[in-house]
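User: Here's a chain of 334 residues. Predict its fold as tokens.
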Amino acid sequence: MANGSVTQIAAAGEGIQGKIVTANRGSGTISVIDVRSDSLIGNFSLPSEGILPEPMYVVHSAKTNRVFVGDRANNRVAIFDDQTFDVEGYIPTGRGVFHMWVDPGENQLWVNNDIDNTATVIDPVTLQVLATVAMPADLVVMNGKPHDVILDPSGEFAYVSMVGFPGAYDYVLKFSTDSFQEIGRAAVGKDPHLSLSRRNKLLYVPTQNSSAVYVLERDNLSLKTVIPVPGAHGAGMPRNGRTFYTTNLPGGGSAGLYAIDTRANSVIGEAVDTPFPTPHNIALTTNGYKLYLTPSGGAADKVSIYDIDKVSRRPVLTGSITVGINPFGLAFVR
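Assistant: Prediction complete.
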């Protein structure tokens, strides 16, 4: 461990409260983990009406005390109370629910639907569908599918990645959250995901099949730099925005987790091995002192747990916990 100590890590992690919620794609459940003890609080089933739910990604709304979970099999978002994890209901979406995100002001929840080639926009307070946003026709005809989505800290813009194009590039699109119209696009590497923070006006785009993180200016989607990272897929950023974390999904666990300094836009030290293959999605506690990682796959049932070295900001593996089958998306619940 470079530039740190076990004492520094333990001190940094003291007093962390909250929960990590994972969407278990293979078992139709969510798992809830206590971040203070890293123990399992419980597994909770999504509502079912004859079709086994397929939980994909998790979004927390602190304003409404709700946890939203996308259910791909049933074309809807399930709603849980964030304390009891009782089911409050569900909201219909388009077909093919995948990534989802809410803006910091919690005014809009965007849910990508990769079969209908749309995004469903939901008011997380009233639970009303505000809009169904069609992806650009010229990209859909080229076999483009909406995949990841993230909203600007101001809540004024949504960024959507589209995948599946022939050739060497996929796309990132910028939408107005007022008009729901496309206002910009950029070609990036293949299989792009998205991350950002208030710290700067940049968009971090790990592209697995191009083994690179594209860094774009959020204002006009111009390219600022490209950071080489093998198999870059997962995307995680603490609230302070100092470090971007990404996973090497196809690497089998060797050099599976990378930390990138967002001021220098360069990799910090050596990559960290992950104990399980297919390191996929990342969630961090609000203070950025702990990181949780889902190693997805048909037989996967673990979440890896890391403390973040206070000095180097590199992850240090501390253990794992058993959850449901094929843990996919996950989120920190304050």
